[in-house]
């Protein structure tokens, strides 16, 4: 009779690492990191897991996030102080992947150090430990297992990925400052070009008027619409650089959720 199977990097628990970490969301001042934790492709253990087969209710009821799968058992057996969880997670299936939202404990110094390394891209992956359910797996052509149903046990931030696709995607948080500065620089260029073009247009009628004086019978030009005059008045004294700086500060505040 088939029995449950678990794997680890030590061959006792399955640990698949995140293929992707997407943009950081700022929700009510909280920083939530969204990871792509697993998919239906082969991992480095030659296993394939059905995305629809994930059982996550148990995990979500107590969604702790560990570091390198350290659940404290080894330290406790040695009489040392165990490593506590560094945050909490929420897992769910989205499209063709198992996703996990991770929020670090901002009152724990070690957790804050881990989060900083994640934000800088030094730590790039999460890993999941799970249990293959009895009767729901079979050996495949690569010597691993194809599994139709598996229960998620825990999620960890890890240093060494076990999945070939465990590469963190660049998020807006990673390069947000640079992106905003580039946008602002481009805004300045466009505004300066617009101002220069407007200045050229304003000068052209004067040149033509000097070259060809208007005849006595010429009908005077119609007055510009009042709306245009108001627009011109607003444009007077407009400084593109100052506007760009204001934009940068406002946009930085927006992406940080403040």
Automatic annotation (TrEMBL):
GO terms for molecular function: peptidase activity. Signal peptide: none annotated. Residues 212-221 have a biased composition (Low complexity). One of its GO terms (biological process) is proteolysis. InterPro entries: Peptidase_S78_dom. Keywords: Hydrolase, Protease, Viral release from host cell. Residues 195-240 are annotated as: Disordered. Residues 95-171 form the Prohead serine protease domain. Residues 201-211 have a biased composition (Acidic residues). The keyword Hydrolase applies. This is Primosomal replication protein N. It comes from Myxococcus llanfairpwllgwyngyllgogerychwyrndrobwllllantysiliogogogochensis.
């Amino acid at each position: 009779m088939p029995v449950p199977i678990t794997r680890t990097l030590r061959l006792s628990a399955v640990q698949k690492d995140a293929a992707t970490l997407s943009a950081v969301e700022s929700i009510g001042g909280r920083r939530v990191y969204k990871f792509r934790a697993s998919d239906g492709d082969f991992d480095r253990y030659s296993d394939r897991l059905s995305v629809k087969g994930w059982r996550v209710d148990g995990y979500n009821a107590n969604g702790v996030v560990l570091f390198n799968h350290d659940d404290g058992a080894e330290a406790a057996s040695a009489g040392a102080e165990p490593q506590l969880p560094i945050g909490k997670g929420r897992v769910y299936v989205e499209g063709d992947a198992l996703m996990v939202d991770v929020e670090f404990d901002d009152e724990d110094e070690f957790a804050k150090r881990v989060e900083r390394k994640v934000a800088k891209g030094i730590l790039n992956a999460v890993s999941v430990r799970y249990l293959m359910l009895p009767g729901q797996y079979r050996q495949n052509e690569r010597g691993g297992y194809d599994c139709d149903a598996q229960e998620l046990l825990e999620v960890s931030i890890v240093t060494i990925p076990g999945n070939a696709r465990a590469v963190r995607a660049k998020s807006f948080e990673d390069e947000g400052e640079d992106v905003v500065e580039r946008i602002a620089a481009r805004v300045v260029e466009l505004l300066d070009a617009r101002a220069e073009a407007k200045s050229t247009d304003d000068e052209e009628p004067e040149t033509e008027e000097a070259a060809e004086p208007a005849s006595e019978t010429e009908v005077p030009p119609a007055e510009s619409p009042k709306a245009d005059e108001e627009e011109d008045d607003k444009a007077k004294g407009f400084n593109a650089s100052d506007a760009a700086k204001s934009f940068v500060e406002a946009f930085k505040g927006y992406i940080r959720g403040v």
